[in-house]
Amino acid sequence: MPYRDVIFANEYIYHIFNKTIDHKKIFDEEVTCENLLKVVKYYRSTYSKKHSYSEYLILESRIRESINKKIYDPNSFQFEILSYNLMPTHFHFLVKQKKDNGLIKGFSNLLNSFVKHFNKTNERSGPIFLPRFKSVLIKTEEQLKHVSRYIHLNPYSSQLVKNYKELLEYPFSSLKEYLLGFSGICNVDYVLGLFSNNPKRYEKFIKDNADYQRSLEKIKHIRKF
Fold first, then answer.
1. What is the mean pLDDT of residues 55-67?
2. Does domain 13-224 have CATH number 3.30.70.1290?
3. How many whole angstroms separate alpha carbon 217 and alpha carbon 225?
4. Which terminus of the chain has fewer CB atoms gathered within 10 Å of its CB, N or C?
5. In terms of DSSP H, where are the helices of 101-140?
6. Can you give the pTM of this predicted structure?
C-alpha cells in the first residue's frame, strides 16, 4: 500500500472514500453491496484480528455465535460507521476512529477481504479500487452536517435516482437508518444530535439542499468536459 501521510486520531471523525479503477461498476448489484457491508461489520471490531473473514465463515456455527457476541459489542469497535453510501463506481463512509490505527487496519483488512471475495466470485484477479482510499478530517459540527448530507444525497446529485422518493428507496445507503429508524450498521446519534435528535429536521435539511447539490454536481461535470 502506498505511504500515507495522514495520522488518524481516536475520537475524530473522517470522511473516507474511494473509487474503482477505470470506473468499473461493481456496486450496482445488491449481493455485492451486502458483501461489502458484511465485511465492514466484521472488521470494525478489534476481535477480527483473531480470524480473517474467510476463516470466520467456515467456523462451526456454535463458535461463530460466540464470536458474534464480541464482534457486535460496541466496546470492541476500532471504528464506528456514522453514515455511508455505495455508488456503482465508488463508496463513501463517514467514520469515527475508536482505537489506535483502527481506520488504517480496519479498512485495509475489509477492502482486501472484499476484493479477494469479489475476484473469486467473478473469476478475475487484480485490484478493483485505486491503491489508497482518501480521507478528510471533519473539523466542525457544521462540516459534519454537510458531509453527512453530501453522502446521503450522492445518488440524487449524480442523477442515479430521479427524485426524493427514489432517493429514500435507494437500498445501498444509510439514509433509511436516519429517517425511518431502520436497524443497520450506523451510529446515527452524532449527526442526529445536531438536529435535536429529530429525524424530521434532518430530512428537511436533506431536502432543502438536494437541488443545490445536484446543480453543483452538474457544474463539476461541465468543467471536466
1. 92
2. yes
3. 13
4. C
5. 102-121
6. 0.91
